[in-house]
Amino acid sequence: MAILEAKGLTVDIPTEDGTVHAVRNVSFSIKPGSLFGIAGESGSGKSVLTQAVMGLLPNADIGGEVWFEGRNLIGLSQEEMRRLRGGRIGMIFQDPLSSLHPFYTIGAQIAEVLHAHKTISPAEARARVIDMLGKVGIPSPAERYDDYPHQFSGGMRQRVMIAMALILKPALVIADEPTTALDVTVQAQIVALLDTMRRDFGTTVILITHDLGLLSSVADDVMVMYAGHRLEYGRAEDVFRAPAHPYTAGLLRSTPASYRPGTELAPICGRPPSLLATPAGCVFAPRCTEALPRCSSEPPPLRRYSDGVEALCWLEEGASTTRPAIKIATTVKKAAPPEPVAEIEDVRLTYHVGSFFGPKRALDVLKGVNLTIGRGETIGLVGESGCGKSTLARIVAGLVPATSGRVRVLGRDMGALDAKQWRDMRREVQLVFQDPFGSLNPRRRVGAIIGDPFRLHGLAKGEERKEKVRHLMERVGLNPEHYNRFPAEFSGGQRQRIGIARALALNPALIICDEPVSALDVSIQAQVLNLLRELQRDLGLTYLFISHDLSVVRHVCDRIAVMQGGRIVEIETAERLFADPQHDYTRTLLSASKTLPAFAEAGRRSLVETQVAS
Description:
Layout: E1 4-15, E2 18-30, E3 35-39, H1 46-54, E4 61-68, E5 71-72, H2 78-84, E6 89-92, H3 96-99, H4 106-117, H5 122-135, H6 141-144, H7 154-166, E7 172-176, H8 184-201, E8 204-208, H9 212-218, E9 221-226, E10 229-235, H10 236-241, H11 246-254, E11 263-264, E12 302-305, E13 310-312, E14 326-327, E15 340-353, E16 361-374, E17 378-382, H12 389-396, E18 404-409, E19 412-413, H13 419-425, E20 429-432, H14 446-456, H15 462-475, H16 492-504, E21 510-514, H17 522-539, E22 543-546, H18 550-556, E23 559-564, E24 567-573, H19 574-579, H20 584-592, E25 607-611
Parallel strand pairs: 3-8, 3-9, 6-7, 7-8, 17-22, 17-23, 20-21, 21-22
Antiparallel strand pairs: 1-2, 1-4, 4-5, 9-10, 10-13, 11-14, 12-13, 12-25, 15-16, 15-18, 18-19, 23-24
């Protein structure tokens, strides 16, 4: 018997622009004690669906049925839903820092869940919270009970959120992108913890994520959503090895976790449709490479295959899995090492930390880093949060002075430059930031943002500047006609292209990419990664590429430097590092990264049933 079953779930949300059809006729069934995965691009309806299940959409028009432990959740009063939330259904949110109140200790916030649902003494509540903190892997839980959220790392805060969700031993836990911003080793720890908790407590887990490599390794069943529709549904093993819907196959091809040496990623072209209108045919047809003439005019039927996989598609034999990958245009490299663009010699950085009145102590952030970046190559910098990756990048960019050591860019010592020389040097080193929206001024138009480097360095004025900006926009795949739009009018991938165009403006010798695709969906991520490689081939660019996603680093980098505790512990070519890692820490990182199973050969399943769309 299913612990949670949805039948024809529909969610309509009224807005000023009209009714958003966020979820359309979605049905699924979740077995007790299983891990059920929901995948899809941003805006596909994943989070809205679970919010409807939790009763967190009071203004939405929700239709259909959602059965949980023998009760239909649709139509329950807010008071009845409050008793279920926390008590029988827990929730783990994507950003633990914004979900935890900064003014209250983590122990008090977890204990509040107990007091809201049970009559319990403060002493007993404290004991239960400390016990749960220990179970989720918080060291010295009795001492950490009275600490505040800012005193925990990202992974530890996510463990606190898991403890809060499990403190009442709910039957169902919904985890909404719980590992998106975490390092690969911390991701593995969080996923292993969720798996342990569901086995120890018998808790059923719904995991929402766009990380298909992660989902393929942990999920029992998976549902793929697009524009509010359920396009594919079945056992995770069968769906990932032989996707039945072209959209699922497109997501798998576009993720770096399906890496094949010597090939480009194959992104899904176009963008998701508006949810204000219901299309006549298949909602994915405008972006589908295998669309039939009838796909644009007739609603697709539900196909059920011999292995239990279901797909909402006109294709009878499932999606093509044998399409050849796009080959990368490569050039023969010279035997001699490339000319160095940046040389980092024994760079050290020490902070002095402590209270305003008390004694200060020395904190060594970088402990003698040596690295040479050659012209035209991409150096990957990987490691856990706090290892010094971004700090090293800031020193190379001249944003933070090193305590000791030397950084040379184009042969010039960065520590010996005067103010005018510094201004000229800043033209040679540019950055592409992690958050494309946060790095763009929301009150300025895109043309002015991209044109700022020309203005600040006095290189172009008036129509000449506009022409250069329009050329840059076209070069990175933006429509030059959107020159006067604001950042909010662009998608996440387009905003990252704006950041890349701004970095390219002055033809820099080195571009530092600090987690440039970590916040993007896999299909948009593939477009940006392919763009960076294309620009490097055409313009001879040099990149320092920082990321916690090892599959991304492997795809784009020539060499990879592994950092741990402020030191580079291993540096090697990308393929050799993955094939034969030498350092124990490197092996730990690689063992924590997830890869997708290879596509199965065609013909491994057969069509057993077709339900014609109404």
